[in-house]
TrEMBL record:
<keyword id="KW-1003">Cell membrane</keyword>
<comment type="similarity">
    <text>Belongs to the Lgt family.</text>
</comment>
<feature type="transmembrane region" description="Helical">
    <location>
        <begin position="92"/>
        <end position="109"/>
    </location>
</feature>
<feature type="transmembrane region" description="Helical">
    <location>
        <begin position="266"/>
        <end position="286"/>
    </location>
</feature>
<keyword id="KW-0808">Transferase</keyword>
<feature type="transmembrane region" description="Helical">
    <location>
        <begin position="20"/>
        <end position="37"/>
    </location>
</feature>
<feature type="transmembrane region" description="Helical">
    <location>
        <begin position="208"/>
        <end position="225"/>
    </location>
</feature>
<comment type="function">
    <text>Catalyzes the transfer of the diacylglyceryl group from phosphatidylglycerol to the sulfhydryl group of the N-terminal cysteine of a prolipoprotein, the first step in the formation of mature lipoproteins.</text>
</comment>
<keyword id="KW-0472">Membrane</keyword>
<protein>
    <recommendedName>
        <fullName>Phosphatidylglycerol--prolipoprotein diacylglyceryl transferase</fullName>
        <ecNumber>2.5.1.145</ecNumber>
    </recommendedName>
</protein>
<keyword id="KW-0812">Transmembrane</keyword>
<dbReference type="InterPro" id="IPR001640">
    <property type="entry name" value="Lgt"/>
</dbReference>
<feature type="compositionally biased region" description="Basic and acidic residues">
    <location>
        <begin position="328"/>
        <end position="337"/>
    </location>
</feature>
<keyword id="KW-1133">Transmembrane helix</keyword>
<feature type="transmembrane region" description="Helical">
    <location>
        <begin position="178"/>
        <end position="196"/>
    </location>
</feature>
<feature type="transmembrane region" description="Helical">
    <location>
        <begin position="49"/>
        <end position="72"/>
    </location>
</feature>
<feature type="binding site">
    <location>
        <position position="135"/>
    </location>
    <ligand>
        <name>a 1,2-diacyl-sn-glycero-3-phospho-(1'-sn-glycerol)</name>
    </ligand>
</feature>
Length: 337
């Protein structure tokens, strides 16, 4: 029997339906934007710049996320190409979204004369808060859940409210709310990022790398609990290695979600985080060793495109941007968050 208790449609106007999934993603993007704007003010960066980043980055992220997902699930779409465009039914991949957002951001940031790594650092908390909120769209759609569990585990062990427990009852079987696990992990990552960005030793780009490292750690362990993972058929030694890394989850009473052996034996969103963590750590080490005078997070952020800065409302100039960053650096705690 069907057990989708929450209506995925907020309201309809004629044939036009507004769905919770899209609304929640929009709220996540908006909150992320506000965080970036607030932090950007410390460096004299106008809010119009971050609004442009969102207006270009959000569509790019959605398109890339869908392409990423469809590419690995092509058998489900090749006979009905119209389904590719039905994004409101779910089926996007976070890592695909990040790829699309980063590509568009690199292009825009360079055109505006900013250093990409400095802007990426400012946007990192916004990215994770968008993911934290966006996962609740999966909750409404009753998707991205984990393997079977018991009602008592959800109610008595996790002490979850009834509206979550009931929504995790999929066709008569209760499932792990992996959307919630990832949302809570993202909240923890957000808190750590807020702490890290106040450290004087933090260098340019390292907050962005920290975001990838921390998120990937959580995603690696949560992904194996899910039952809808994108996967591929890889060597047995690699599958065994990944399963060995995941073993600590069994000590907490978790089991891996079902993965059809005919579909694959390696979850992509477990393998990819391993590479991301390694690349991010190595990159931070090499950048400190190879780049002389690597800027600190608290250093001023100045656009090299004077014409762009001069055209902004409020006469935001290079000098004002530098002065703003200096006054709001960690050495001036009275003007920080």
């Amino acid at each position: 029997m069907g057990t989708l208790l929450l209506n995925p449609i907020v309201f309809s106007i004629g044939s036009l339906s507004v769905r919770w999934y899209g609304l929640i993603l929009g709220v996540g993007a908006l909150v992320g934007l506000l965080l970036a704007i607030r932090e950007g003010k410390r460096f004299g960066i106008p809010q119009e710049f971050f609004m442009d980043v969102l207006l270009i980055g959000a569509p790019s992220a959605i398109v890339a996320a869908r392409i990423y997902y469809v590419a690995f699930m092509w058998d489900e779409y090749k006979n009905d190409l119209w389904k590719v465009f039905k994004i409101w039914e779910g089926g996007i991949a976070i890592y695909g979204a990040l790829i699309g957002a980063i590509i568009s951001a690199v292009i825009l940031v360079r055109r505006r004369g900013y250093n990409f790594w400095r802007i990426a650092d400012i946007c990192a908390p916004g990215l994770i808060v968008g993911q934290m909120i966006g996962r609740w769209g999966n909750f409404i759609n009753q998707e991205a859940y984990g393997g079977p569990t018991t009602e008592s585990f959800l109610r008595d062990t996790l002490h979850l409210p009834s509206f979550i427990v009931n929504q995790m009852n999929v066709e008569g079987t209760f499932h792990h709310p992996t959307f919630l696990y990832e949302s809570l992990w993202s909240l923890g990552v957000l808190i750590v990022l807020f702490i890290l960005r106040r450290r004087k030793s933090l260098r340019a780009g390292e907050l962005f790398f920290s975001y990838f490292i921390l998120y990937s750690i959580g995603r690696f362990f949560i992904e194996a609990v899910r039952t809808d993972s994108l996967a591929f058929q890889g060597p047995d030694w690699l599958a065994s290695f990944i399963n060995g890394l995941w073993t600590p989850m069994t000590w907490l009473g978790f089991e891996q979600g079902a993965l059809d052996p005919a579909y694959g034996n390696i979850r992509i969103s477990q393998l990819l985080p391993i590479f991301i963590i390694i690349i991010a750590i190595v990159s931070m080490i090499l950048r400190r060793k190879m780049i002389p005078n690597l800027p600190r997070y608290s250093d001023p952020i100045i656009s090299t495109k004077a014409s762009y800065m001069d055209s902004l409302p409020g006469e935001v100039t290079q000098e004002k941007a530098a002065a703003s960053a200096k006054d709001t650096s960690p050495e001036h705690p009275d003007k920080t968050e």
